[in-house]
Amino acid sequence: MTDLAESLAPFSGLRYHSYNEWAKLAHGGRLQKVSIDAGFTCPNRDGSRGVGGCTFCNNEGFTPSYLRQHRDITQQIDIGVEFMRRRYPRTKAFLAYFQSYSNTYDDLEVLKERYAVALAHPAIGGLVVGTRPDCLPDATLDYLAELAQTMPVELEIGIESCSDAVLRECLRGHDFACTQEAINRAAQRGLFITGHLLLGLPLETQESLIEGAKALARLPLDALKFHQLQIVRGTRLANQYRAAPESIPLLDPDRYLNAVVDVLEYLPPQIKIQRLGSEVPPAVLVSPDWGMRQHAFPAKLEERLKVRDTWQSRLFDDDANQDAANPAREARRATG
Ligand code: SF4
Question: pTM surpassing 0.90?
C-alpha cells in the first residue's frame, strides 16, 4: 500500500483522477462534448432485445433541451457549440457527442454517414460515441479505431451495473459478461473507453457495488462516469414508484457520495473520472429532488474523500489484478 502523497501524485492535487484535469495535461485544455441526437434507436426498444427499454430510461430526461427541437446534426452542433463557448470560453476542442440512444446500432454505412456530418463541422475536433455493449460488432470497432488514428475518439459504454441480478431487474437485456467482452475487444483496438455507471438501481447493494468495482478494476477502462438513479416520467420505474414508492429505496446525496467513494477506492489510479452526477429537467423528474446542481458534485466528493481520509485506488490490489493477466488491460496501462 502506497502512502497518501504518493497515491495522490497523479491526481493534480485532488483525491481522485479528474478527467478534466487529465485533459488539460493531455490535450492542452478542456475537451467539451456537444451532445447530438442522431436519430438512432436501441435494441431494447425496437423489439430485437426488448420493448419499452431499460426500466429507468426516458431519453428525454438525459437529452439537452435544444436537441429536442432540432433534428439536423449540423444545426444541433451550431447551437451546442454556441452555448458551450459562452459557458466554457477556454475550451480547447469540441467533441461531437453522439449521446441519445445507442449510437452504434445501425448499418456501418449509416453510422459512417452520420459521424461524417458531425466531423465535417468546422468546430468539431473529435468524436464521442455512446452505446450499449451488445451493439459493438468488430467492424464498427475497427472503424472507430481507424478514426482514432487522426483525432480524439472516445467510446462510451453503458455498464450501469456489474451485477447480473441488477441488470435483469432493470430489464437491461444484456449481462455483465457482455460488457466485459465488449470493453476488452474495444481496448484491443486501442480505443479510449469510458464506462457509464448508474448507482442506486433496485437490488444493488453495497456488497454488489464493491464486487463490481473490483471487476471494473480488472478491465481496460480509461474513464468512468457516475450517475445517481433518478426516476423520470415516462419510465417503468416511474410507474412502479407511483404505485409503491417503498419498493425503490432511493439514495440521498450522503449515501450516494459514500457509494461513489466505495467504488473509487477499488479503482486503479489511471481511470479518469469524467462525471460525478447528473441533473434531469425538473419537468420530467419524479424523484429524488436533491436540489443539487451538477457542478456541485466534484467539490462534495473531494470533501467526502477528505472526511473519510481516503482516495481513488486506496484499496486497489495491483498484484491481484496483474495476476488476472488481461493482455488488453496491460496494453492500455502501458500507454497510460
Ligand atoms: S438506457 Fe440506453 S439501452 Fe436502455 S433503453 Fe435507454 S437507450 Fe436503450
Answer: yes
Cα distance between the two ends of the chain: 20
pLDDT digits (tens, 9 = 90+) for 253-294: 999 999 999 999 999 999 999 999 999 989 999 999 998 888
Structure-block grid coordinates of residue 97: 457527442
Top mutation candidate among 55, 56, 102 for ligand 1, by most atoms within 8 Å of CB: 102
Phi/psi at 282 (5° precision): -55, -30
Our mutation pick for probing the ligand 1 site, out of 40, 42, 232, counting the most ligand atoms within 8 A of Cβ, is: 42
Atom 8 of ligand 1: nearest residue by CA position = 42
For residue 90, the 8-state DSSP code is: T
Q: What is the mean pLDDT of residues 199-213?
A: 97
Taking the centre of ligand 1 as the mean of its atom positions, its distance from the CA of residue 224, in whole angstroms, is: 18
Average pLDDT over residues 160-173: 98
In a domain, 238, yes or no: no
Distance from the alpha carbon of residue 327 to the mean position of ligand 1, in angstroms: 30
Instruction: Please check whether residue 220 lies inside any domain of the structure.
Output: yes
Q: What is the dihedral of CA 234, 48, 129, 217, to 10 degrees?
A: 90
Q: What is the number of structural domains in the chain?
A: 1
Q: At what angle do helices 138-147 and 176-188 cross, to 10 degrees?
A: 40
- Look up cell 446534426; give the residue: 73
| Torsion angle, alpha carbons of 287, 290, 294, 297, to 10 | -130
Confidence of residue 335 (pLDDT cuts 50, 70, 90): very low
Q: Look up the domain containing 157 and give its range.
A: 4-230+252-281+289-334
Residue 316 lies in a domain: yes
